[in-house]
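Hi everyone, sorry if this is the wrong subforum. Our group has a chain we'd like a structural model of before ordering constructs, and none of us has done structure prediction before. Sequence below.
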Amino acid sequence: MSAEVWISALQTLMQPSVLFFLLAGVLIGTVIGALPGLSATMGVAIMTPITFWFSPTDGFAMLMGLWNAAIFAGGISAILVNTPGTPASITQTFDGYALYRQGKGGLALGINVIFSAIGGLFSTFCLILFANPIARFTVTFGPAEYFMLALFGLSMMVAVSGEDILKGLIVGAAGILLSCVGLDPILSVKRFTLGQSSLLAGISFIPVMIGMFGIGEVLYQMYSRRRKQEAEEMEARKVNLKLGKVLPSAKEMRQLMPRCLVAAAVSTIIGAIPAAGGDIASIICWGNSKKTSKHPEEYGNGSLEGLAVSSTANNGVIGGAMTTMMTLGIPGDAVTAILIGSLTMYGMQPGIKMFTENAVFTAQIMILMVLANLIFLVLGLATAKMSAKVLNVSQPTVWTAVCILCIVGSFALNNNFFDVIIMLLAGFLGFLLKLYAFPNGPFILGLLLGGMMESNLRRALVMSHGSYAIFVTRPISGVLLAVIVLTLFWPLIKKLFTRKAPATADK
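Answer:
Right subforum, don't worry. Here is the predicted structure as tokens:
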């Protein structure tokens, strides 16, 4: 993108309203991330429909601030009460809480803020450098390539299905079937509309996301609530150990930086892989850092190095996930899946058009990500010792607020009560999936990518006069097919090599 585009984008972002919504997003994200049980995905899903009342720039300023801040803030509860605020903060409990018990809670909070910002800024600069070339490469894509791209995204169902792949495939197939509701993409024939005109445009993606991640989570927490355990946790949160200093020394920063820059690079790459999120990145980076550390025995017992690596990896995935979403239209994680819906609502489509027809807005998003990291860096350091107060909110209060926001947000999409019904049904479905240990990730992938897969499959077959050879003879499509096959059969290949290795060792 040209210098004129960046200058124009920066001038727009300097408006008071944009900075206000960015700051509001950071504050909301900090509260949501710090409260155990809530997540960045839930926060973005709930707030997305509310942002449609604002201009696209103001709306995305709030969402970018919320997302980046919520990931960092998940480390606050991980450090202070040994409970990750977001899934990405799991490994921060390994060292953060131990540091807090040692009287180094302030330093742990400071490292969490500083290295989360470093990871976020590093991955955002990677987004700025590489997104445009990747997007221009996608100009060569036709229906065959986009079909394979959608199929590749759907193949990630295996990755997000957890231990039970069969359950993930069942739920994913249900999501694909639900994406067929509405008008046929080629012939405009009504399908599964049940005589409801509200279903002609299909099932709206945002209400489903709000319901599954908002109402579904609230219902499950209410169902599994243990009053005695909750009371004990609230009492534990009131324990006020000495936090000590917040800022690490220059020597500590020099010792931590090299390893954390490696973690930032690795987590950016992991973030660019569809369905790989901050939890996977932090586990991989923490584990590998422990293996190569000079003091591996400190990991899990209050290692500053381990906490810094985990904090870097959490926010490091964001830029990678945004790169995949903005260039290919494939969600890098659950949050970017919601953001695709947001762009669609604003009349934009991820891909090369984001870098040609909407170049200024694309540059604004990238700059907003940089500003969001800088704002939560300053705010997080300034309020580190007050962070514990955020954790004193009772669960029923949080549930009530979430339910109200879910209902208001889903109605605000189209001022249509039908969207509220969809949201409530999705919430009940999300509760059932969680209750019976079915992953909801594959369902979201199926709903989001099912339409893209079907329409491009049929267009490709029209172009080839019904020949499936088009998916193999076109180079990019053929390479994607090979990657898909490798992705699907990798667990079997891995098991095969694992079995052969001991056999070879015995000889």
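For your construct planning: The radius of gyration is 23 Å. The chain has 20 helices and two strands.
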